[in-house]
Amino acid sequence: MPRVAVVRFPGSNCDLDTLRAAEGVGADAYLVWHRDTDLRDADVVILPGGFSYGDYLRSGAIARFSPIMQAVQRHAAAGGPVLGICNGFQILCEADLLPGALLRNAGLSFVSKPVDVIVERPDTAFTCDYDSDCRLRLPVAHGDGRFVAAPDTLRMLEAEGRVVLRYVAATERSPFQPNPNGSANHIAGICNADGNVVGIMPHPERAADRLLGLTGGSGFFTSMVTLHQDS
Amino acid sequence: MTFRVHVRVMPREGLLDPQGQAVEHALSALGFEEAGAVRIGRAIELDVAAASRDEAETRARQMCDKLLANPVTEDYLLEVEED
Which residue of A41, A164, A193, A208 shows the fewest CB atoms closer than 10 Å? Predict the structure, then answer.
C-alpha cells in the first residue's frame, strides 16, 4: 500500500478528511507538520484544503516557504506524485510547481456547493481510475478559485493536455452556471508537464464516502493505490 | 541607516478585478457617477536597515519578487524614503 503524507499547515482544515479518505482506500496515510523537513518515505504527498496562514498576503503565499515545502519540491522533482486540493492547489501555484495563480472568485462570494467537472486527464497518479471524459459531481468551497494564467501559458496548458478537470454543465439544459468562479477556460484543475503534480479546486475527500452523500471523489484516492500496485 | 519602504501592489492591467468593479458599482449607487476604472491593490510599508538607499531598494525589490507580489498576476511600485 502507498505511503501517503498529508501536510498540515497552520490553518489547514481539510487535513483530517483527506487523511480519512486515504485511509479509506487502504493507504498508509499520516500527517506531516509544516515545520517538518522529512516526508518519511512518502510515495504520495497531498497538500490539503484550508486557509494556511490565514490566507494572509495571498492564498498559499506564506505556506510555500514552510520548511516541509523543500521536501515536497524534491519529491516532485524526483517524479513523486503530489496532489494539491483547493488551498493546496493555491500553494502549488505560489511554489511554482504549477503555472498560473488563483484569484478572488469573479462573483466575490465564497462559493460552497457541488459542481460538475469532466476528467480530461485520466492518466495521472490521481485520476487513473477514471475513464476519459467521465463527469463527476464534487464539492467546491473557496473564495479564491479563479484560475488565471498568461495567454501563452493557457495555450500551452491546452495544447499539452494539462487540464485535468474542467467545470461543465450537468446537462445541456442545466440552468446553473457551470463555472463557479470565472476561471480561465473553465479550468478546475491542472497538472505539471510530467503529470506528477496535480492541483484541483474541488474537494474529492468530501465526496469519497457514501455517508457524505457523494462518492465521485473516491477515484482520486483509489488511483493512488492502483498506481502503486502497478509500479 | 534605516529606510522606510512603501510598496504598492496592484493587480496586473487587463486582469479582472472583481473587487474594483464592486466598489465602482457602490460609488455609482452613492451618486459618484464620475468614478470609473476602479482598481484595488495593496499597500505595504516596512523599515529596511541598509547602508544606502540603493541597497535598501535592491533588497526591497527582492522581497517583492520573492514574496510581497505575485509575478503572475501583480505589478508593484516601490518608494524608498530615508527615516
Answer: A41
